[in-house]
Design goal:
Elements lengths: L3 H9 L22 E2 L3 E10 L2 E8 L4 E9 L7 H8 L13 E6 L3 E7 L3 E3 H7 L3 H20 L12 E4 L4 E3 L10 H20 L7
Antiparallel strand pairs: 1-2, 2-3, 3-4, 4-6, 5-6, 7-8, 8-9
Length: 212
């Protein structure tokens, strides 16, 4: 039987574009091909939120792909040390819903949280190929459990905005771009998960537009 997850896995397996056109420049002034944190080359911007951007990048030292949460900018309007302090505990969590953190770098003008890159697709792409409500709910189950575990331990994942989440080859939602802002709390997690699931359900039912 050709399952919904098999269809989603086929989409995830498609290789992403390596670079956007050179004319692209993010709101913080970053361009594909530039290097942040002395070793991480920016390839493709996957989204942004207050004081941060999410990039598919490459570690020029190990030549491995990474997910990069790039914090602040020239004005350094976020406390990078506090973000790192609220994020580092995730290194001890073993969950398919969390990309493994490999590095955290203070760049002087901001910071970078680097995580392992997984074969994956955006929520918007996933919403276009997930045909049932039950498949969307199953996709969110590992992340829901990770959120509960984090909250019981006094931690916060920071699941907003939804662009920090992606869908892995196994068909599950996961945090591709970790980095907990000082303002994040448990309600941030609940809102972020609800927004992601709502977007997938809208894509599955064909009603309305995904809330990305």
């Amino acid at each position: 039987m050709h399952t919904d997850t098999e269809r989603l896995s086929a989409v995830v397996a498609r290789p992403p574009r390596s670079l956007r056109p050179p004319a692209f420049r993010s709101a913080a002034g970053h361009v594909p091909g530039s290097v942040v944190g002395s070793r991480y080359r920016l390839l493709h911007c996957c989204g942004s939120g207050p004081s941060m951007e999410f990039w598919h990048g490459r570690d020029v030292v190990t030549d491995r792909d990474v997910g990069l949460t790039v914090l602040a900018g020239p004005d350094r309007d976020v406390d990078v040390d506090e973000v790192f302090a609220r994020t580092v505990w995730m290194c001890g969590m073993d969950s398919p819903a969390l990309a493994r953190i490999v590095d955290m770098v203070d760049t002087g003008s901001g910071g970078v949280v680097a995580a392992e890159w997984q074969s994956s697709c955006s929520l918007e792409t996933a919403a276009s190929v997930v045909p049932t409500r039950s498949e969307a709910a199953r996709s969110a189950r590992p992340l829901t459990e990770a959120m509960r575990t984090a909250h019981r331990a006094g931690g916060v994942l920071d699941l907003e905005p939804s662009s920090r989440l992606r869908v892995g080859a196994g068909g599950h939602l996961y945090v591709a771009f970790p980095g907990t802002l000082p303002s994040a709390d448990r309600f941030t997690d609940v809102r972020g998960l609800a927004s992601a699931l709502r977007g997938m359900l809208r894509g599955a039912t064909g009603v309305g537009a995904p809330a990305w």
